[in-house]
Amino acid sequence: MEITCSQMDVLMSFYLEDDLSETLRKGVEQHLKTCPTCKAKFNILSSVVKELNTVCKKEDSTLAKTYPIKQYSLFRNNLSAYVDNELPAEESIKMKKFTINNKLARKELEEAFNIRRLMSNSFKKTKSESKSDYSKKILKQLNLEDKNQLAFNPIILVSSAFIMSVLLISAIVIYILSM
Fold first, then answer.
1. 10: Cβ contacts below 8 Å, ≥ 6 apart
2. What are the C-alpha distances in Å from 168 to residues 125, 154, 160, 162, 176?
3. Backbone dihedral region of 88: left (phi > 0), alpha (psi from -120 to 50 degrees) or beta?
4. Of 13, 67, 113, 134, which one is least surrounded by beta carbons within 10 A?
């Protein structure tokens, strides 16, 4: 199987995770043997992944020694809700206490707030760069549709006209038959 360099960019991570079919795996290995550019990319990617795995294992073992895992996992599960002010008051207070007493939790909370701020700034920038406010357009369209709903529906108008026609024709037929 012949694999191109652009295909290799996609397949490398799957190859590292051993998540390819036998045919694709052989194709990737063959390409890595013949393409020095992709081989260099692969070496860099695999070293980064190995280093990340090492760091994550060290961090997890440090956490396990320093903080109760159940408490820390509860913090991580509620972090997004805490940042967005979606937690009940009691849970929010628990999060604050844990964050005050935990250096790593403070760091993660700061990172979460930074990500939220970046996303908000990006949204504001995109919205200001946009020539028209799409949300206002959509709301205007919804308002127009709501006003149109107050008017009679065309189907109802046609149905009522049909019923009136049938009644009128029936009345005429009955009148003619009675003569």
1. none
2. 64, 21, 12, 10, 12
3. beta
4. 134
Q: For the purposes of burial, counting CB atoms within 10 Å of the CB of 52, is it exposed (0-12), middle (13-18) or buried (19 or more)?
A: exposed
pLDDT tens digits, 26-80: 998 999 999 999 899 888 888 888 887 777 666 655 555 555 667 777 777 888 8
For the chain, give me the number of helices (H) and strands (E)? 8, 0
Burial class (CB within 10 angstroms; exposed 0-12, middle 13-18, buried 19+) of 39:
middle
Q: Where are the domains of the chain?
A: 1-66, 68-131, 136-178
CB 103 within 8 A of CB 111: no
- What's residue 33's pLDDT? 92
CB 55 within 8 A of CB 42: no
Rounded CA gap, 102 and 72, in Å? 9
